Amino acid sequence: MNIKTTISDTCKLECVDNGKTMIADILDFRQQKRLSVSVMKSVKLEMRYNDRTHIYEGNMGGLTFTTVGPLIENIKQGR
Questions:
Q1: What φ, ψ does residue 30 adopt, rounded to 5°?
Q2: Rounded to 5 degrees, what are φ and ψ at 60?
Q3: Which pairs with CB-CB distance under 8 Å and at least 24 residues apart come from 25-29?
Q4: Helix, coil or strand: residue 33
Q5: How far apart are CA 4 and CA 34, in angstroms?
Q6: How far apart are CA 29 and CA 35, in angstroms?
Q7: What is the DSSP letter of 9?
Q8: Where are the alpha helices (DSSP H) in the chain?
């Protein structure tokens, strides 16, 4: 039996300072290390994984953004 891992192309991004949420496109993802996203298809945001809170954090334009990252699914293949 094989297990196939799929990672979502988008993630939910939240601004800590004003409480707004948005959907960001994932450019690069290294699980529990770093995450690079495109906000509104125009601004690139680099985020680092925080081991204490288990979320990705990044700063842009004086605002702090957080996300739990993309949805990761493990799909069993075979019988």
A1: -125, 110
A2: -155, 130
A3: 26/70, 29/69, 29/70
A4: coil
A5: 22
A6: 5
A7: S
A8: none
Q: Which residues contact 67 (CB under 8 A, 6 or more apart)?
A: 11, 12, 13, 14, 24, 35, 37, 47, 55, 56
11-49 pLDDT tens trace: 999 999 999 999 999 999 999 999 999 998 899 999 999
Q: Are 8 and 70 in contact (CB under 8 A)?
A: yes
- Contact of 8 with 75, CB cutoff 8 Å: no
| pTM over cut 0.70 | yes
In 3D space, the residue among 29, 15, 17, 20 whose CA is nearest the CA of residue 69 turns out to be 29
Cβ 22 vs Cβ 11: under 8 Å: no
- Asked if 55 and 66 touch (Cβ cutoff 8 Å), the reply is yes
